[in-house]
Amino acid sequence: MAAFAPIALVIGAVSPALWIIAPVAAAAMIALILIDGMLARGVESWGIDAPADTEVGQPTRIAIFARLTGRTARNAEGAFECDPRLAPSGRATLSVKRSPETGLHEGWVDLHPERRGTAAITRAWLRWNGPLGLGARHAKLALDTAVRIWPDLSPVRSKELQTFMRDAQTGLIARRIRGEGTQFEALSEYEAGMDRRRIDWKASARHNHLYARENESERDNQIVFAFDCGQAMCEPVDGLPRIDRAVTAALTCSYVALKGRDKVALFGFAQRPQVMTPFVNDARAFHRLQSAAAGLDYAAAEPNFTLALATLTAKLKRRSLVVLFSDFTDSTAAELMIESIGRLVSKHLVLFVTIADSELETLIDQEPGDMATLARSVTADTLLHQRSLVLQRLRRMGVDVIEAPHDQIGYRLIDRYFMVKNSEAIG
């Protein structure tokens, strides 16, 4: 339409009597737009299809379907407004195309939720053009759809872990399992292929025959997964908050521990304790741990380690393995954490788990092309050095420390759990 203005000026300058051509052409264009909009027809029914449940970080498909009354409609587009947990901008758009089989216009988009919780989808829009592409129609729909975002359990469902649990012997059959662990069960005649370290030389000398010790696997241990939900753990690593990475690793290890007939509980805290579940001792009750982990909230504040770990110590009536997921930015902020963990170590076995900070390593490896880059590299190197000092202090206190990338931390935790279990260090 704006192009008709200079055309009218040219016509008026060359032949003033023909100036009427421009407004007639504009009116014709408006008529074409109205006719095209009428040919686009309307929408008989349309809506949005979203799953009721999904997991953080996993692809979540949300679709729009519509039955348009006009078959000549083209270039249909859809959009919906949602909670930022689903889409970072709180809005997603998608292309809607007609399916020859069903006659419906369908379109979908795969989103990756970034935080746990309940995400609402409140409004949706649909727009489609007429056959000439000049006119368009649109429809608006108010929605009350909610998507529950749970912790990520994809490692628990992975073929590797399921194969491992199927082949593992610990805790999968209802009898005492001999030959594993360190708790003495019985003596048996030594046979070729047995571990020579299991030979009981005193018993063999008394009977003038080689005898080997058979040990019983340790069970019924109490394991507590404690989560720091403070500001440092809410910082993202590769697109997801550290707390969500920690929850995934903890639930994976919890599943393995429950299969091994151990008791598992979850404990979450920030400025004050948030969640403390009863001990679960059956893999069929794993969903209780999943629901409790979904209730761990994000907190933009420093955690109160003194109150949290004192509360946890008061609730534990026997020696337990406490797996603490936390992070820190500098040694000064970690002083209260170290002091509180020191009191916890005197009564329980503590395993400190932290996610390796890949961002600091990236800053250190940057080429110092200017003063700003050099300053960032020096600062990152200082923070990484302070971090290593804090972890070293924890190790000297008797705390077992795991520091690994987020994609390896779950399997490293399972390996360490089996080492602790087989050494009978908990009971």
Kindly state the number of beta strands. Answer: 18
Strands of the widest sheet, in order across it, are 1-3-6-5-4-7-8-2
Measure the end-to-end span: 83 Å
Largest sheet: 8 strands, mixed
Please tell me the CATH architecture of the largest domain by its name: 3-Layer(aba) Sandwich
Q: Can you say what the CATH homologous superfamily of the largest domain is? A: von Willebrand factor, type A domain
* CATH class descriptor name of the largest domain: Alpha Beta
CATH topology of the largest domain: Rossmann fold
What's the mean pLDDT score? 84
Structural class: alpha/beta
The radius of gyration computed from the alpha-carbon positions, rounded to a whole number of angstroms, is 32 Å
Count of distinct structural domains: 3
Helix content: 25-40%
Backbone shape: elongated
User: How many individual helices?
Assistant: 13
| Percent strand | 25-35%
Question: Segments where pLDDT lies below 50 for 5+ residues?
Answer: 169-182
Overall description:
The protein has 13 helices and 18 strands. With 427 residues, it is an alpha/beta fold. It has three domains: 108 residues, Immunoglobulins (Immunoglobulin-like, Sandwich), CATH 2.60.40.10; 212 residues, 3-Layer(aba) Sandwich (Rossmann fold), CATH 3.40.50; 39 residues, no CATH class. The strands form four sheets. It has an eight-stranded mixed beta sheet. A six-stranded mixed beta sheet has the order 15-14-11-16-17-18, with helices on both faces. It is elongated, with a radius of gyration of 32 Å. The termini are far apart.
